[in-house]
Fold this sequence. Notes:
6 helices; Rossmann fold; three-stranded parallel β-sheet
Amino acid sequence: MFCGFKEGEKLARHVAGGDVFVFPSKTDTFGVVMLEAMACGLPIAAYPVTGPAAIVKPGITGFLSHDLRQAALDCLKLKRRDCRLQAADFTWEKVTDIFLRALPAAHAPAPRPARGPVRLLSGTSIAFPGT
Length: 131
């Protein structure tokens, strides 16, 4: 449901008036919007993918499932206070630390696939050492 443009205090009050925040993305990495919703006391219903998995404590601050409808229904049983506490734990320092710790893995060269014999167009083949 689109309720018009909101910002600042009006946005926070509007979000806080909800029961559950459904995050339907399968590709977003770190959804600050989830933390904002949790800061307003809303549990998160999301797919079990990297971004939400880094933020949501299943069964405490939300549910991760391929069935978002069921996840949202399950979220209705959760305590809003737990969501606010979890969001408050994500300081800029902590988020920066998470990001910096992820950089080496993101920068590492991709593993090379094992190479087997290569068949040439002429019908002959060559083998690489170790294959």
